[in-house]
Structures are given as C-alpha cells and as structure tokens.
UniProtKB/TrEMBL annotation, chain A:
The lineage of its organism: Eukaryota, Metazoa, Ecdysozoa, Arthropoda, Hexapoda. This is Ras-related protein Rab-10. Its main location: membrane. The keyword GTP-binding applies. Pfam families: Ras. PROSITE patterns: RAB (PS51419), RAS (PS51421), RHO (PS51420). It is found in: Endomembrane system. InterPro entries: P-loop_NTPase (IPR027417), Small_GTP-bd (IPR005225), Small_GTPase (IPR001806), Small_GTPase_Rab (IPR050305). GO terms for molecular function: GTP binding; GTPase activity. CDD domains: Rab8_Rab10_Rab13_like. It comes from Drosophila gunungcola (fruit fly). Transmembrane segments: none annotated. Belongs to the small GTPase superfamily. Rab family.
From TrEMBL, chain B:
It comes from Drosophila kikkawai. The lineage of its organism: Eukaryota, Metazoa, Ecdysozoa, Arthropoda, Hexapoda. The gene is LOC108077550. Residues 36-345 form the Rab-GAP TBC domain. Acts as a GTPase-activating protein for RAB35. Together with RAB35 may be involved in regulation of insulin-induced glucose transporter SLC2A4/GLUT4 translocation to the plasma membrane in adipocytes. Signal peptide: none annotated. InterPro entries: Rab-GAP-TBC_dom, Rab-GAP_TBC_sf. One of its GO terms (cellular component) is membrane. SUPFAM superfamilies: Ypt/Rab-GAP domain of gyp1p. Gene3D superfamilies: putative rabgap domain of human tbc1 domain family member 14 like domains, Ypt/Rab-GAP domain of gyp1p, domain 1, Ypt/Rab-GAP domain of gyp1p, domain 3. GO terms for molecular function: GTPase activator activity. GO terms for biological process: intracellular protein transport. It is found in: Cytoplasm; Membrane. Pfam families: RabGAP-TBC (PF00566). This is TBC1 domain family member 13. Keywords: Cytoplasm, GTPase activation, Membrane.
C-alpha cells in the first residue's frame, strides 16, 4: 500500500462562473503550464500538489468545479469537506464579478463555517480588456473579511502565492490545535490566534 | 482485409439495397459492431438509428427537403437580427412583426430587440464552449465548404454571425501626439488577441460557428431547458460525422441534418441536463445508481474498495454518463462507442455496461491505488484499445 508521504492533507475547492479560468489556474499551479484550449469542466475535476510550508509537507487535494448553475447540485456536495475555497472571477467579465456575492452565499449555505476563503480576480494580464478594477475586488474582499489577489494563469502571476497563502491560513488554524508540534510559536489565546494575520507569506 | 470488405458488403446490402424498406433490426446488429469509415455508412446509420430518417427509402427525399427547409426558417426567424431586410417585402413590417414601434432601445416585453439582447446571455455561454470544442483536432477551426449563405453575407449588417453579438467588436485606439507647428501624429494601435479564433472572411465560416448556431437554435426552441454546458460535447461528434460525409449532397446539409439528429438524441438524454430531474427516473443520479449497482453485482471487491475510499460515483460517472463518454476518449473512439450505443434499443443499457467495463478493466490498479490515484485514473482514463472495452462490455449481460 502507498506510504504516507505527507504531514497534512488539505482539501481545497475552486468555484466561480464558467469561463473565468478555474481550470487554467489549477493547471498552472499543478503542472506549471498554460493552455487556452481547455474543454469545459463538466461536474468536478481533481488535482493533487504537495507543497512545503514551515517545514511541513502539505498535500493539497484540489477540486475544480463546473461553473454553470446546472452542476450546482453535484458540486455543492463538495463544499462540506473543503477546508479552503478559492472564489474566482474574471477581471474582463463584469457579470462574473457581480456573481461573487452569489458564490459567497453558496459557501454560507453549504460549506463549513470556518472554511478559509480567498477571492481571485483572474486574467489580470489582459489589461486592455479589463472592466473590473482592482479596487472593487479589494473592496468586496474587505467587506466580507477575506483575502484577495489578482492573478494570471497565463502570465503566471500570483498563482503559486495564492495557493500557498490559502494553505498557510488553513495551517494556522490546524496548528492551533496541535500547538505542541510548533515550538517557535507562542500561543496565548487560541481564539485570537485564529484571526492573527501576517505570518510569513512565502512558500518553501 | 477481406473481413473488412465483408463488413462493407454487409452494410451495402442493408443500406444500399434495392428494396425500399430498410431492415432496422439487421442494421442495429451491424452498427453494434462498429460502422466502417467508408462511404456514408455512419452518417446514414446514425440518421436511421436516431429516428431522423424513417426506414422507408422512398420517404427520405421528402423528409430531408421538408426538415432542411424548416431549419432554414429557424435561421431566418431566430438567428438573423430583428428587422433584417425581408426578401421582396416592400412594407415596413417584416416576418416577425417588427414594426416601426420597435427599436434596439425598446425594453417592452414584446420587443424583438429586447429578446435579441436577452438571448445574448446564454449565447455567451455557448460561445465560450464551442470555442473549446475538441481542441485536440483542428477540424472545428477549419472553414466549412458549406457556409450558411444568409449568415456569412452580412451586407454590412453586424450580428448575423452569433459570436459577433457577444464578442465586442475590436475598437482601434490611437495615440495622438502633437508636435510643434500643428503637426499631429496618429499611431493606430490594433491589438490582436492571439487566442481568439481567427475571424473568417466575408462569405466563410468555421465549423465551430455552425455548431454554435445549432446550439443556439436548440436553446431558443427549448426555452425550458436552454443551453447547458456539455451539450457542445454531444453535438460535436454528430456534426463531425455529418460534415465529413463523403457524399457531398449530404455534406452540404450537415448543419440541418445534425440539428435534427442532435434534437432526437437530446430527446432521449435531456433529463441528464436538467437539475430538477436529477433524482427522477431517467435523471442522472438514477443512471449513476444503475452503474453503481451493476458494479456491485459484478465485482463486489472493487465496489467495496471505492466505497471505503469514499470515491463517490459522481466523481467520475457523472461526466461519463451525461456526455455519453465523449470527453473520455479520442474522437474516433467516441464514434465507435456511439455506433454501439445508438444501436442499443434499450438505450442506455449498453452505455452503462461500457462504463462498468472501464472500471473492471482497471481492477488491479484500483485495488492497489490510494484515493487520489484512483480519482485520477477514473477522471483521466488511460489510453486503451477501445475494442477491448467494448468486447468486455458485451460479455457483461
């Protein structure tokens, strides 16, 4: 049987309107490549990538979902098990940005309460087609108290960083529960600790 | 080679025989074992098996003429922008009753222009998907030899090509520099996006544009269902078969014929695409359960392994079944699978058997693998001789 080659397993989910580039983001992260010729995702897809954070090997199990309404009954069943969710919109598509609110509502309905969230404004390389400026993305993220980043799967901007930051946020939570393994950190109050931002933001 | 010739002969005997009535039972038996890639055998067999053509050869000419004329009418009424010049009409009301009161800024519910703009919502989705159709072959990006004349000759009118409605026209921007003495230098910048499919010249259109029109018309005519992602993967192989028919008198009408074959097939599988029918008999969850039950009956070991790994059937079989396996194999293999699936009178029993065989064939790997490797295996099925899968499926009674 396969040996356990990692310390922690994190389950992540990518959601957002159809065509915003969820599959491309995942492909960039897992295979470090880009192609604009992806077929549309039907139902749900899956990738694995192992990263190292704070000396721990973390296996990321990432689920990529279909964006269209029809598939929601299939895809929302994955929300429950997810520890982190990436909400993706396309900076060249106004509608996909407006729908972020709808996706957030979906998370409230179907995901665990303490799931880590992050909003990604993808396709930020397409400056001449931009219709959603960065400030609007930042504003909605601030309003809901979640992280935000602009990304480009094509130009490889912020993709690795986004996944690592999300993983790190989850790690902060989990390591609160296993503090003995983490001697450098002094934990005074677990509840405060969960909200404390600003740990090193780099992926090993 | 002689075996191949014998098969061709069998098809000739069934399809091209002098008698009027085609023996559908015999045709089913033949197509079940795969249609040879010669003559119009596959295109014609599919038309018959999907019920687009009746078994009487003498009825074909009138059926085809009637359906193709009907499709032409759909294009005129549903695709062309409102108020397009109606042939020979001298009055100010065209075929859709677009009178002088209606105009592009009208928001009235009766306004044909209002509908026109509302359509663009689902058209945008179709547009994204048809551009992503079968990216591993170049066929869909090639120009068709039989473009739709009323669409490709725009006469300067914007929006006859459906994608023009949803992809904003490229506006050229210019840098204007003024230098002394009133000299003005204008640098015209036109950025061309490389990933956009090359626009065809006036009078030409690519196969994906034709597929886009078929899906658009289908969605317009079935408003309760509309367009659902994945329908592009169903129409794709049918269109490919019709549009590569060696008989040019058929190929010229690939669009209309494909539309009706697609509509007929959707009539049988449309429940897969409707969320509210997921739990109904004939809905996708019911199909997944049938596969799961068959797997359990055939090989409890694999069934238990997947179950203990919490590898739920919807991780893989949702897509397998909804798309009739069209995303799992290369196009020629998909055509071969569909030969058998279409000839199955108890549709979709055989499809489920093929799916079950796909799992059983990977038995050793599945029992050995962990969860992640198994999901990967089933979501990206390894290359295989498709006949091995089909032969295996035949043995599963």
């Amino acid at each position: 049987m396969a040996k356990k080659t990692y310390d922690l397993l994190f389950k992540l989910l990518l959601i957002g309107d159809s065509g915003v580039g969820k599959t491309c983001i995942l492909f960039r992260f897992s295979d470090d490549a880009f192609t604009s010729t992806f077929i549309s995702t039907i139902g749900i897809d899956f990738k694995i990538k192992t990263v190292e954070l704070r000396g721990k090997k973390i296996k990321l199990q990432i689920w990529d979902t279909a964006g269209q309404e029809r598939f929601h009954t299939i895809t929302t069943s994955y929300y429950r098990g997810a520890m982190g969710i990436m909400l993706v919109y396309d900076i060249t598509n106004e509608k996909s940005f407006e729908n972020i609110v709808k996706w957030l509502r979906n998370i409230d309905e179907h995901a665990n309460e303490d799931v880590e969230k992050m909003i990604l404004g993808n396709k930020c390389d397409m400056t001449d087609k931009r219709v959603v400026n960065k400030e609007r993305g930042e504003a909605i993220a601030r309003e809901h108290g979640i992280r935000f980043m602009e990304t480009s799967a094509k130009s490889n901007i912020n993709i690795e960083r986004a996944f690592c930051e999300l993983a790190e946020a989850i790690l902060d939570k989990t390591s609160g529960r296993e503090s003995a393994e983490n001697p450098e950190r002094v934990i005074i109050d677990r509840r405060n600790n969960e909200k404390a931002p600003g740990y090193s933001k780099c992926c090993a | 080679m002689s075996m191949f010739k014998a098969r061709v002969k069998e098809f000739e005997d069934v399809l091209a025989a002098p008698q009027d009535l085609i023996d559908l039972k015999q045709l089913r038996q033949l197509t079940f074992n795969g249609v040879p890639d010669v003559q119009s055998f596959r295109a014609l067999s599919w038309k018959l098996l999907l019920g687009y053509l009746g078994p009487r050869r003498s009825s074909w000419a009138s059926t085809l003429a009637q359906k193709r004329a009907l499709y032409r009418q759909f294009i005129e009424e549903l695709v062309l922008p409102p108020g397009h010049a109606n042939k020979g009409a001298g009055d100010d009301v065209d075929s859709r009753g677009v009178g002088l009161q209606d105009h592009p800024l009208s928001e009235g519910p009766e306004s044909a222009w209002n509908t026109f703009f509302n359509d663009n919502e689902f058209l945008l989705q179709i547009d994204k998907d048809v551009r992503r159709l079968c990216p591993d072959i170049s066929f869909f990006q090639q120009p068709t030899d039989y473009p739709c004349d009323i669409v490709v000759h725009s006469k300067g009118e914007h929006g006859r090509r459906l994608h023009e409605r949803v992809v904003p026209a490229v506006l050229s921007s210019a840098n204007v520099e003024r230098k002394g003495l009133g000299m003005t230098k204008i640098n015209l910048i036109t950025k061309r996006s490389v990933e956009n499919y090359a626009a065809m010249e006036e009078g030409q259109e690519a196969h994906w544009e034709v597929v886009q029109r078929i899906l658009f018309i289908y969605a317009k005519l079935n408003p309760g269902q509309g367009y659902v992602q994945g329908m592009n993967e169903i129409v794709g192989p049918i269109y490919y078969v019709m549009a590569s028919d060696p008989d040019l008198s058929y190929r010229a009408h690939a669009e209309a014929d494909c539309f009706f074959c697609f509509t007929a097939l959707m009539g049988e599988i449309r429940d897969f695409f409707i969320k509210t029918l997921d739990d109904a008999e004939g809905g996708i969850k019911c199909m997944m359960a049938r596969l799961s039950n068959m797997l359990k009956a055939k090989d409890i070991g694999i069934y238990e392994q997947l179950k203990s790994q919490e590898l739920h059937p919807q991780y893989y079989s949702f897509r397998w079944l909804t798309l009739l396996l069209s995303q799992e194999f290369p196009l020629p293999d998909v055509l071969r699978i569909w030969d058998s699936v279409f000839s199955d009178e108890q549709r979709f029993d055989f499809l489920i058997r093929i799916c079950c065989s796909m799992i059983l064939i990977q038995r050793e790997a599945i029992l050995e693998n962990d969860f992640a490797s198994n999901v990967k295996l089933l979501q990206n099925y390894p290359p295989i001789d498709i006949n091995v899968v089909i032969t295996h499926a035949v043995t599963l009674a």
